[in-house]
Design goal:
Blueprint (H helix, E strand, L loop, with lengths): L1 E8 L6 E9 L2 E7 L10 E3 L4 E4 L1 E6 L12 H10 L2 E6 L10 H11 L5 E4 L15 H6 L5 E2 L8 H13 L4 E3 L16 H6 L7 H17 L3 E3 L5 H11 L5 E5 L1 H5 L3 H6 L12 H13 L4 E2 L8 H4 L16 H10 L6 H15 L15 E11 L16 E11 L2 E5 L5
Parallel strand pairs: 1-4, 1-5, 6-7, 7-8, 9-10, 10-11, 11-12, 12-13
Antiparallel strand pairs: 1-2, 2-3, 5-14, 14-15, 15-16
Helix pairs in contact: 4-6, 6-7, 7-10
Length: 425
């Protein structure tokens, strides 16, 4: 396959400019100035100036498989990922049953291998996500788990967390933590501020995140273990991560597109479609997250793709589940909110959405180089599209109906086209 006349962006080498990319098998054979590529290829695609970048990497997605496949399954989740430009995803482990044993892990990895993209999975930190007994982290690591998390349920036992970090570090695997202290939360998914007052509920205070981030950073620094703070939402937590990074190279953080795009005003406007954990906060928090992305405090962008059925999201606000889908809108929101507004360059956005998450999970991804994996996203950052028909089984998104920049033309994984935009899309 020959991709010609594309504007290549590679965050690992810093290479940027018009190039031809020759793919042989599942690797990139040659990157050359336009017109200097091999004269013959079985499949020639003229990119006509569109951007070619490393396939995006999302290290925080929920595909609900096994057990909750009426919301999403591994096949439909992978299709949504490919449409969004992602060639690699890391699944969270809060399925039913949870990924706390080798059998379930093998099932998830096996199903993932049948899709057109690279599907990896975390395993649970604790058995049954009960927060009382650690899983066999060594065995799960040997069976292919790329990290450990009880995402959705925070680890409140400090002694248990310390032991988990020690064992994960010995396996050379990161631990990713959902940072909300349940003892401080009256109603999850809604900020204990203007939004909670609007709905007449208690909400989730910022202290629920701040207190746990502060504790967990301290323990990770002491144990010299790789720790990722998931979906950061408060300005105080951003600053805590910033300070921790000055003390340790083992600290990482992720931000979601919805947290750098929206505030609690969106919950007032969209109700359950903007209910999520941790909740959307204030404008000062949103701007602090963007600043954290700018200065490297926040390493990566992750969607926390969380599909739910329409019936579930139609429940009253305090009863509906938290979370929104994000794989198909993530790149567009990054372009609109970060690149077009001058906060990040396109190169920096690609680094946050491909190379940095790949590095944390030790994946061979996030770069374009001769001999490297033929995993690419081809997109037009200026072309507009309307977020209406999603490939995901779910449609729970506050961005539905919005016209967004950044149309994905091709997602290529392992040298094969995993997604190609049709003219009617």
């Amino acid at each position: 396959m020959l991709l010609k006349n594309g504007y290549l962006i590679d965050p690992r080498s810093g290479m940027e400019g018009y190039r031809d990319i020759l793919i042989e098998g599942n690797r990139i054979a040659r990157i050359a100035p336009c017109g200097e590529s091999a004269p013959y290829a079985e499949n020639v695609i003229d990119l006509r100036g569109r951007t070619a970048a490393p396939g995006l990497v999302d290290v925080h997605v929920h595909f609900r498989d096994p057990g909750l496949t009426y919301k999403e399954d591994i096949y439909t989740g992978a299709k949504a990922a490919a449409r969004g430009g992602f060639t690699s995803v890391v699944l969270m482990a809060n399925t039913k049953p949870p990924v706390d044993n080798a059998e379930t892990l093998r099932y998830v990895i096996g199903r993932g291998a049948e899709t057109g993209i690279r599907v990896y999975s975390c395993a649970n930190v604790t058995k049954g996500m009960g927060g009382r007994e650690l899983t066999d982290m060594e065995e799960l690591s040997a069976q292919g788990a790329v990290g450990f998390t009880d995402d959705g349920i925070p680890l409140t036992d400090e002694k248990l967390l310390r032991e988990a970090l020690k064992r994960a570090a010995a396996c050379h695997r990161p631990v990713s933590l959902h940072e909300e202290n349940p003892a401080l939360i009256k109603n999850n998914g809604v900020n204990a501020g203007r939004a909670a007052l609007h709905f007449g509920i208690g909400g989730s205070p910022r202290e629920a995140e701040i207190s746990m981030v502060e504790r967990d950073l301290r323990i990770a620094i002491e144990e010299e273990a790789d720790l990722s703070i998931q979906h950061i939402s408060t300005r105080e937590a951003v600053e805590l991560v910033r300070q921790a990074k000055r003390k340790s190279q083992h600290i990482y953080a992720e931000a979601t597109p919805h947290h750098f795009t929206l505030t609690e005003e969106a919950v007032i406007a969209h109700g359950t479609l903007a209910k999520m954990n941790p909740p959307l906060r204030e404008e000062t928090d949103r701007l602090a997250i963007i600043e954290g992305l700018q200065d490297g405090t926040i390493d990566m962008i992750a969607t926390d793709h969380a599909p739910h059925s329409a019936e579930e999201k139609a429940r009253p606000l305090t009863e509906a589940p938290s979370g929104i889908i994000g794989l198909e809108t993530s790149l567009s929101l990054g372009i609109r909110e970060l690149v077009d507004k001058g906060y990040l360059t396109m190169m920096e956005l690609m680094e946050k959405m491909s190379l940095a998450p790949a590095k944390l999970y030790r994946l061979d991804a996030g770069y374009l180089a001769e001999g490297g994996p033929a995993d690419l996203v081809v997109f037009d950052p200026n072309e507009m599209w309307t977020a209406e028909k999603f490939v995901s089984k779910a449609s729970n998104s506050p961005f539905t109906g919005e016209t967004l920049p950044g149309v994905v033309s091709y997602t290529i994984c392992g040298g094969r086209i995993a997604y190609e935009r049709n003219a009617h899309e």
